[in-house]
Amino acid sequence: MSIAENIAGIRANIARAAREAGREPSEVLLIGASKMNDAAACRAAIAAGVDALGENRVQEMTQKLAENAYEGAPLHFIGHLQRNKVKQVVGKVDVIESVGSMELLTMIDAQAEKLGICQDILLEVNIGGEDAKSGFAPQDIPDAARAAAALNHVRVRGLMCIPPVAEEKHGSVPYFEKVHGLYVDINEKMYHNKLDMLSMGMSDDYEDAVRCGATIVRVGTAIFGARNYTV
Known about the structure:
Layout: H1 3-20, E1 29-33, H2 39-47, E2 52-55, H3 58-66, E3 75-77, H4 86-89, E4 95-99, H5 102-115, E5 119-125, H6 141-149, E6 154-161, H7 173-190, E7 197-199, H8 206-211, E8 216-219, H9 221-224
């Protein structure tokens, strides 16, 4: 299957899942998670109508920016962002989805101020409480959202999560439902219902994420094929 054929199939799945939830398919943005895929693959995904591309690694992103790999589509940073790489990402991407600590939040705000811009971000929720993953604990999200709202050079657009690996089919649903609940709560209480991005779901569970209210799904393998981690 080509990248274009894969995207067409995913679009059909998203549309079906959205309608099952009483939603419009147009409410869901499809991000091509292009980690370990070259500039040509990125261009093919853009040509096939992917809504945005998402990168996990700063060095890879920087190289592909130099190759104009993302021309014609928004770029999201979706991986763990180390504090010493903030300068390489702020202002280079449309959205930083993985803001998971107060330290990172304030550093992004400071760098955006230096550049004279306002950086769009998502607050990352460590919904499974996993030590190996970054992100705010669910109970800390309201305080993080309140702190972010007070900053002048970041704009919170919503939340992002990566649930624990599901051991059974639909195993991510309880986590998606909890993050959706957090999203609705802070949207109503702090952001006057102006939040518009809830990034949940990847290749194995994006349909469940759509049914649970995701407005963004981050799909890599199902678009580009299996990654070769031995290289």
